[in-house]
């Protein structure tokens, strides 16, 4: 371990967790609102460790969606990480297998983005730096989850303090984060119409898979020419 | 939630953790095998996040009530220029204003 690199990682990770802490607290509060205990919420933050997909998971769990569909949806929301791990491979090839295990477990959006930036500046992506950056975010993610869950348990009716509107807006923000992608508007329009129609005609749990499938199939029918020549775009967001 | 439901939840969380880890290690494994991703597959994969997330947004907009719809419209406008945090703040202010000032 290199202490200097580790401390530099800690320092650079701090602003990230400041920005993410409202979402950690929001997740904790909404998890409790959807039937989780405080320990469940912290357990999910500690094991899944992927903010947006955790929100999707509690929302679906609260709606009594079938377990396999909850897991599949979390998998789908996190699918972008495949691109991250493919692209970060060249910077962390020198890690030991155990170091790689931890590196991949902790590979969240800002971790990926900062690692790429560090490599671009010509600095080595050492495991010490990587771990320092990751650990401060990971630790405070658990703390803010617990704080939010405790707060959420004290709040009886989420509608009374406007909590119910936050999740759809949070997801709307995530959707907007992908707006530079090819076929964004047709995909969103197709999935929106299909999901609303599916809620109407089929019922609640199924609107997620039906709506998502409609948008994905549409995209597969119209691959852009750009995709063949350029690399995969990497979005921001959580 | 009774004990068996709670055990289900623990299993769901663990399965989700494994699925998430698979996405985080999958690209590394694939990149050493696959030289070229077919354009159709790539287009489909690219569409996955927006398509999934939209299905969580659209029904709330349509069935969530006028106060939620109004908050989402404003949050959308804010989101075109500003961060998600400001979207949340703007939407929350709108929904609270409608619920407490006008009702």
UniProtKB/TrEMBL annotation, chain A:
UniProt KW Membrane keyword: yes
Topology in membrane: Multi-pass membrane protein
Domain of life: Bacteria
Localization (cell): Cell membrane
Keyword flag Cell membrane: yes
Stretches that traverse the bilayer: 12-32, 65-83, 127-152, 158-177, 184-203
Keyword vocabulary terms for this entry: Cell membrane, Membrane, Transmembrane, Transmembrane helix, Transport
Family: Belongs to the AzlC family.
Protein name: 4-azaleucine resistance transporter AzlC
Native source species: Sinorhizobium kostiense
From TrEMBL, chain B:
Keyword field: Membrane, Transmembrane, Transmembrane helix
Transmembrane segments: 9-31, 51-78
Pfam family membership, one: AzlD
Recorded superkingdom: Bacteria
Protein name stated in the entry: Membrane protein
Species whose genome carries this gene: Sinorhizobium kostiense
């Amino acid at each position: 371990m290199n202490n200097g690199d580790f401390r530099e990682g800690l320092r650079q990770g701090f602003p990230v967790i400041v920005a993410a802490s409202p979402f950690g607290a929001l997740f904790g509060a909404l998890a409790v609102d959807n039937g989780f205990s405080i320990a469940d919420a912290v357990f999910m933050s500690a094991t899944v460790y992927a903010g947006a997909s955790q929100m999707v998971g509690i929302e679906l769990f609260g709606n009594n969606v079938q377990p396999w569909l909850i897991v599949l949806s979390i998998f789908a929301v996190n699918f972008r990480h495949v691109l991250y791990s493919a692209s970060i491979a060249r910077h962390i090839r020198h890690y030991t297998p155990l170091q790689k295990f931890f590196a991949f477990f902790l590979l969240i959006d800002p971790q990926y983005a900062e690692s790429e930036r560090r490599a671009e500046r010509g600095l080595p992506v050492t495991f010490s730096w990587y771990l320092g950056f990751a650990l401060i975010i990971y630790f405070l993610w658990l703390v803010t989850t617990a704080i939010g869950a405790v707060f959420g348990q004290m709040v009886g009716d989420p509608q009374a303090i406007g909590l119910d509107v936050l999740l759809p807006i949070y997801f709307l923000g995530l959707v907007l984060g992908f707006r530079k992608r090819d076929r964004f508007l047709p995909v969103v329009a197709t999935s929106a119409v299909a999901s609303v129609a599916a809620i109407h005609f089929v019922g609640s749990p199924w609107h997620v898979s039906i709506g998502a499938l409609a948008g994905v199939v549409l995209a597969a029918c119209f691959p852009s020419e750009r995709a063949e020549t350029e690399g995969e775009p990497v979005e921001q967001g959580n | 939630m009774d004990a068996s439901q709670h055990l289900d939840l623990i299993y769901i969380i663990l399965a989700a953790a494994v699925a998430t880890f698979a996405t985080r290690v999958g690209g590394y494994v694939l990149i050493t095998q696959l030289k070229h991703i077919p354009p159709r597959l790539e287009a489909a994969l690219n569409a996955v996040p927006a398509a999934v997330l939209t299905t969580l947004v659209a029904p709330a907009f349509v069935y969530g009530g006028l106060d939620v719809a109004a908050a989402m419209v404003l949050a959308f406008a804010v989101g075109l220029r500003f961060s998600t945090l400001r979207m949340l703040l703007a939407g929350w202010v709108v929904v609270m204003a409608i619920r407490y000032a006008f009702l």
